[in-house]
Design goal:
By secondary structure, this protein is an alpha+beta fold. 23% of the residues lie in helices and 17% in strands. It is built from 10 helices and 21 strands. Strands 2-1-21-6-20 form a 5-stranded parallel β-sheet. The longest helix has 24 residues. It is globular.
Length: 476
């Protein structure tokens, strides 16, 4: 089995800074196999070094499971090595060659690779798209599948500030003055951000780099928000980790946060060079936001002081200047496969005869647009606050059918797509977390090994998480 990774970083966001398991908002008893093995190995890594974690992986409660990125990476590479996976990095996909509806081989920036079975484990659905499989991106309208959570969503309060400058034009960080009809879809995807690993420990702290061409005027709308808002929260979510560290994340409930709203549109369709520019734009925004939040007088002093005490970690991502190499791609292309999962499959008809995974993370989407209203005010659009079962931490439990990771037969017969699978924007808003993708990826690996005529060494194009690369010998 070969794993082809277009960058130098293996493991996606699972080893790139996302350092607590979203399984605390799922039914953990359904997450066995590779997901459980990976977390047991993380737990053992700490135990072998004399560190006792605050949780027990075998206790399936809703406690938060946390770990450092370096530990996640070490465990992942160990499992790949033990499974006999040949990991080849810096192999950017260039072309897919087919015989009829079957992929014959694929050409990368460094070599051509041939196999009988292929798994597209990318966030973006790159192999799927290059193979001529139909896909979509963005959001459906409400009528397309009868989804109440489709179309435009406005659960956040309108901010009582102007989003326009003196010339009546949108301020920086405001994406539009017209979000479009409420019941219609669009090509917007939910915001991307980095998951940064930070520390306040002076012995391990590395100062944030200075942003390029910092302009405080870029944050005028944020300045107006602070001036108009009493008791405004800290704009970054900070999750405590072992080793006196924090996982810094975009706050889904916050008016402004680490995500650069609107800048992620076009990422999946972009060339490698264009993605590099988008990646850098997100990094510079994050650095500028940090400088603004730690220096601008409009920011409450307590917030300035709290963030100023934090820096990057000397012992994390050393090869990348201590900055995460992985942009958090929350949503990319979605295949138009044999079965399209919708809101109804989550809430009304969860059981499937061909189930390969149980998902139960709440439906939730981060912002897609930030709108300056013509009659005054600014409002974020696209958020879906977590849709949970009453009195529970998790969402409805539902099956992921095998058909949802299969292309239409006329389009491709030897490809599995466990990440950019066939579903709507509303459905991906529940599916889009590591516990679910690990489980689906594990099942895809088993299917690749068991399917008639499958190669004993299925080729794989990029890894979303280790489970997405699962194949013979990879599971427990």
């Amino acid at each position: 089995m070969i794993l082809l990774e277009p960058t130098a970083h293996v493991g996606g966001v699972n080893t790139g800074g996302l350092s607590f398991s979203d399984s605390n908002q799922t039914v953990r008893s359904t997450l066995k196999g590779l997901f459980e093995e990976w977390h047991l190995r993380v737990e053992k890594d700490y135990k072998d070094r004399g560190t006792t974690l605050k949780y027990d992986v075998m206790v399936k409660d809703h406690s938060v499971w946390t770990y450092e990125p370096s530990v996640a990476a070490r465990v992942t590479h160990q499992m790949l090595k033990e499974a006999g996976v040949q990991v080849l990095t810096k192999r950017q996909l260039q072309k897919v060659h087919k015989n009829g509806a079957a992929i014959r081989e694929l050409t990368t920036s460094d070599g051509t690779f041939k196999g009988k079975t292929y798994i597209d484990a990318t966030y973006e659905g790159d192999l799927m798209a290059a193979a001529g499989v139909a896909w979509t991106i963005g959001r459906e309208g409400r009528k397309a599948y009868g989804e109440s959570l489709a179309g435009k969503q406005y659960p956040k309060a309108k901010m009582p500030i102007s989003g326009l400058n003196d010339q009546g034009k949108p301020l920086p960080l405001v994406t539009t003055t017209d979000a479009g009809p409420e019941d219609e879809g669009d090509k917007n995807v939910m915001v991307y951000s980095f998951r940064l690993c930070l520390t306040g420990n002076p012995a391990n702290r590395v100062p944030f780099p200075e942003p390029v061409n910092y302009d405080p005027a870029r944050f005028e709308v944020v300045r107006r928000y602070f001036q108009a808002t009493m008791n405004a929260p800290l704009l970054w979510d900070l999750y405590p980790l072992p080793g006196e560290k924090f996982d810094a994340n975009n706050g889904i409930g916050k008016q402004f946060s680490m995500g650069l709203v609107g800048a992620c549109n076009g990422w999946s369709e972009a060339s490698p060079a264009e993605r590099e520019k988008i990646w850098e734009a997100h990094k510079q925004y994050t650095l500028e936001l940090y400088k603004f939040l730690t220096t601008d007088p409009a920011v409450p002093e307590a917030h300035r002081r709290q963030l100023a005490e934090l820096g990057l970690c000397k012992d994390e991502f050393a090869d990348y200047g201590h900055w995460s190499p992985q942009l958090y791609v929350r949503e990319g292309r979605r295949m138009k496969g044999m079965y399209c999962l919708t809101q109804a499959d989550i809430q009304e008809k969860p059981a499937k005869d061909d189930a390969i995974a149980v998902s139960s993370f709440p439906i939730d989407s981060h912002d897609c647009q930030r709108v300056a209203l013509p009659d005054g005010g600014v409002i974020n659009e696209g958020t879906i606050f977590p849709v949970r079962l009453e009195g529970r931490r998790h969402g409805p439990a539902f099956h992921i059918p095998y058909r949802s990771i299969l292309p239409q037969k006329a389009e491709c017969t030897n490809l599995l797509v466990p990440v950019a699978l066939s579903c709507t924007h509303v459905a991906i808003s529940s599916i889009r977390v590591e516990p679910t993708w690990m489980t689906i990826g594990h099942s895809a690996g088993v299917a690749a090994a068991w399917s008639p005529g499958a190669s004993p060494r299925p080729k794989i194009c990029r890894m979303r998480s280790f489970a997405s690369a699962a194949g013979p010998g990879s599971g427990p």
